[in-house]
Amino acid sequence: MAQMGLISRQIKSHKYRRCEEFHKAYGNILDRQFAPTAPNQVWTGDVTYIRIKAGWCYLAIVMDLYARRIVGFALSDSPNTQLTTSALKMAYHIRLEPKGVLFHSDQGSHYTSEEYAKCVAKCNGMSHSMSRRGNCWDNAPTERFFRSFKTEWMPKGGYEDIFEAKSAITDYIWGYYQTVRPHSFNEYLTPSEKKRLYFNKNLLSTV
């Protein structure tokens, strides 16, 4: 290069902002304590992919660990923070804005984002727990729900489009999983039955 009079010129590398400025991970407060003693003590959340003819769509859920009941869910063509916040907002309003819930998720960017942190902060006294990186067993009940849906309900080839997927997911959650399907953790009661039994016992204890 020197003999030919050539000079090396290299493009300067672009300095991206470090994601830590906008994303924050939290400690594993839950620590696999998957058996709370009452509803609205611990909720868990996760996102999974659903096959459709054009590719993929994404399902976010919020589960109340007490009865393994789904209290919020959302479907989107993108696994972003808007998807996960929609599921959390649904759960928070359906459960009439409970106080002091521990919410547990993995460390996906749709949970570590500043926007999601703001959504959690708007929920009365809610705190955020996260699985250790790359450890799906730290959120095993939620992962189990996804496996149940995909093996019990979802066709092997997926769905025609996101609208068919949403209809099928809604039917599974409200029409089957919550009210018909027995759950081993609930001593083979459905999530709805276990929740109803809890509130009936508490009602009788106050009489």
Automatic annotation (TrEMBL):
GO terms of biological process kind: DNA integration
Gene3D superfamilies registered for this protein in UniProt: Ribonuclease H-like superfamily/Ribonuclease H
Domain Integrase catalytic: 35-199
Pfam families in the cross-refs: rve, rve_2
InterPro entries: Integrase_cat-core, RNaseH-like_sf, RNaseH_sf, Transpos_IS3, Transposase_IS3/IS150/IS904
GO molecular function, one term: nucleic acid binding
Designated name of the protein: Integrase catalytic domain-containing protein
Organism: Psychrobacter nivimaris
